[in-house]
Amino acid sequence: MFVDQVKVYVKAGDGGNGSVAFRREIYVPMGGPAGGDGGNGGDIIFEVDEGLNTLMDFRYQRHFKANRGENGMGKGMHGKNAEPLVLAVPPGTTVKDVNTEEVLADLVEHKQRAVIAKGGRGGRGNIRFATARNPAPEIAENGEPGVERDIQIELKLIADVGLVGFPSVGKSTLLSVVSAARPKIADYHFTTLSPNLGVVDTQDQRSFVLADLPGLIEGAHEGVGLGHQFLRHVERTRVILHVLDMAGTEGRDPYDDFITINKELEQYDPTILERPQIIAANKMDLPEAEEQLAFFKEQLEEDYPIFPISTVTREGIRDLLFAVANKLDEIPKNYKPIEEKEDRVVYRYEKQAKAFKITRDPDGAFVLSGEQIEKLLKMTDLTRDESIQRFSRQLRGMGVDEALRERGAEDGDTVRLLDFEFEFME
Predict the structure, then answer these.
(1) What is residue 190's predicted lDDT score, i.e. its pLDDT?
(2) Does 215 carry a binding-site annotation?
(3) Quick one: which H or E segment has residue 212?
(4) d(Cα 234, Cα 224) in Å, to the nearest integer?
(5) What b/e readout covers 291-311, taking b as 16+ CB neighbours within 10 angstroms?
(6) Distance between alpha carbon 358 and the CA centroid of its chain, in Å?
(7) 91 labeled binding residue
(8) Most buried of the four, 8, 206, 225, 257, by CB within 10 Å?
(9) Is 42 annotated as ligand-binding?
(10) Phi-psi region of 288 (alpha: psi -120 to 50; beta: other; left: phi over 0)
């Protein structure tokens, strides 16, 4: 089964907790702190495997979670970092964050890797908190939570040439004639239910990858028919091979078909029509095809290369393949960078999100929320008084106390943060 779009949940590993420990060797008075740091949590990494051509592995498993780092130990021993969770994806995979729609990765080359979710940093042990004022601290951090997100994985086939055209114009037949691919061929619409790839070898020892995409119809960019599911696969092609039924066997006009399909491509992505387009005038072995071809050339406003062919008699196919190969030789592989992120090239200042915000619950309690303040709580060991005092100082430094006063908080009021409740004290 061909699967080219799927949503999954990924959770990187949390960092290990730091340790509170002290040296207790004989003859070493006041040995001091000896708690080690926790290990880092495992990343979620996507790696390209050129042997894959579908996202089938993600169809039945939709949740992926990396291991957390090992906790720190006494005698200054740090916890072990967790191994990353590496998931194989086919070439041409694009990963987006569902909530922000940010493109996280665009993977096209074999063995190319991208970190989709970063593992949490290990918490610091009490060795890290020793100072001249407090040489024996009982403070240690919990591990930082790993990144978790819902992502959308899309596969955009990497093919040099994309076959486009109405259903039943002969795209699948052409692919079967020029390559070793064996797509299903039948005399009814939408025989092709998923894209098919074939490697074409020309007689002068050149080769390219040809993709047969399910037939497009009017309204495809809005979701009509089957073609809309696979329009994304046209994005990576360097040349478009437009197949037309020049004999009009189904009563349609070839010029109208040509205009309709190009309009659908333009409405899906205007840059697609910037690519070279070659017209394959198919079914030239049938009556009236020559007359229709002459009329089609008269109607055509732009100068497209047109090659009369017949997939039945194989007439004209050799010249068509040479023309496609010649055009590909003129176009570099990186002709159209897909989903290129501007912020990889140009630095853009982004205002940092507020560290916290304050709301009220119906019972009158003040509720603190925000990514930064929630992470701070999760990394605080609430079982130790010194850690709680440090957390209180951090909140004061962030301006939480002042903000609560401005919202009308008074001595004894309840303040909630995640699952914990605190009492506001002046």
Answers:
(1) 47
(2) yes
(3) strand 207-212
(4) 17
(5) ebbeebeeeeeeeeebbbbbb
(6) 33
(7) no
(8) 257
(9) no
(10) left
The H-or-E segment that residue 242 falls in is strand 239-245
- Residue 304 token pair: 């497209």
Q: Residue holding tokens 């970092």?
A: 81
**Residue 207 annotated in ligand binding:** no
Query: How many angstroms separate the CA atoms of 98 and 422, rounded?
Result: 34
Is 237 flagged in the annotation as binding? no
State how far the Cα of 54 lies from the Cα of 93, in Å rounded to an integer: 9
* Other Cβ atoms closer than 10 A to 244: 26
Quote the CA–CA distance of 414 and 420 in Å, as a whole number: 10
Annotation-wise, does 36 bind a ligand? no
Task: Give the 3-state secondary structure of residue 420.
Answer: strand
Q: Whose CA is closest to 234, among 268, 208, 257, 278?
A: 268
Question: Is 60 exceeded by the pLDDT of residue 228?
Answer: no
Least Cα distance to 42 among 86, 103, 95 occurs for 86
Q: Is 329 annotated as a binding residue?
A: no
Query: Does 311 appear as a known binding residue?
Result: yes
Tokens of 266: 């333009």
What residues are paired with 162 via a beta bridge?
211, 240
Q: How far is CA 181 from CA 122, 209, 212, 244, in A?
A: 51, 11, 10, 21
191 appears as a binding residue in the annotation: yes
Type of residue at 295 = F
Question: Which amino acid, 78?
Answer: H
Report the predicted TM-score, pTM, of the whole model to 2 decimal places.
0.71
144-182 pLDDT, tens per residue? 999 999 999 988 877 788 888 888 788 788 888 887 656
- Listed in sequence order, the DSSP H helices in 182-288 are 254-268
Mean of pLDDT over the chain: 83
